[in-house]
Amino acid sequence: MIRVLLADDQMLVRESFAMLVASAPDMEVVGQAANGKEAVELARSARADVVVMDVRMPELDGIGATRLIAADEDLAGVKVLVLTTYDTDEHVVEALRAGASGFVVKDIRPAELLAAIRTVAAGEALLSPGPTSRLIARALALPDTPATGGPDALSDRERQVLTLVARGLNNTEIAESLGLSPLTAKTHVSRIMGKLTVRDRAQLVIIAYESGLVAPGR
């Protein structure tokens, strides 16, 4: 069972998502939070696998809550799926940098939200290529873009794999594109994450764009 925590300051939104998640045979709702502070506390006490996190919340917003969850070693296995009103919301980039595994818009179809939760729970990054490119392009224009580890230490093959990860391909698609086995592709991704000291594929996407390995909009 995938243990899901819902964090949104709108009760109607939380309740509707809770009913949806509870209807899935492989998921259960382990808590609901009305703000980021509650989300962090419940992530610790309820041992959630995935936190569906709204960006804009009182007391502590979704970005701050995501950052605290990502920085807590005891919550290393917790994945954050960010909820946003628009797919061009500049706060999404901040959330991804903070440690979120992906984002979805609030008007997502029910079946797509459940699929998104499953994807994030499985360790994949959920990033729509179009919106992600626009968001990263905007982030690169900011003067305070934080420095990140670059792909210089990677082998040529690993750089190829990182490029495909940044374009939104999963391990199976990467394997097909490079003529590898899915297991080999997965191993490459794991090694890249280790070399660049990141905990999530979403962070690999950020590094690929910020380093110039992948150009926004290409």
From TrEMBL:
- Where would I find the HTH luxR-type domain in this sequence? 147-212
Q: Which SMART domains match?
A: HTH_LUXR, REC
Positions of post-translational 4-aspartylphosphate modification: 54
PANTHER family attached to this UniProt entry = TRANSCRIPTIONAL REGULATORY PROTEIN NARL-RELATED (PTHR43214:SF24), TWO-COMPONENT RESPONSE REGULATOR (PTHR43214)
Gene3D superfamilies in the cross-refs: 3.40.50.2300
- The protein's name is Response regulator transcription factor
Q: Where is the Response regulatory domain?
A: 3-121
Q: Which UniProt keywords apply?
A: DNA-binding, Phosphoprotein, Transcription, Transcription regulation
What Pfam families does the record tag this protein with?
A: GerE, Response_reg
InterPro entries recorded: CheY-like_superfamily (IPR011006), NreC/VraR/RcsB-like_REC (IPR058245), Sig_transdc_resp-reg_C-effctor (IPR016032), Sig_transdc_resp-reg_receiver (IPR001789), Tscrpt_reg_LuxR_C (IPR000792), WalR-like (IPR039420)
Record's SUPFAM superfamilies? C-terminal effector domain of the bipartite response regulators (SSF46894), CheY-like (SSF52172)
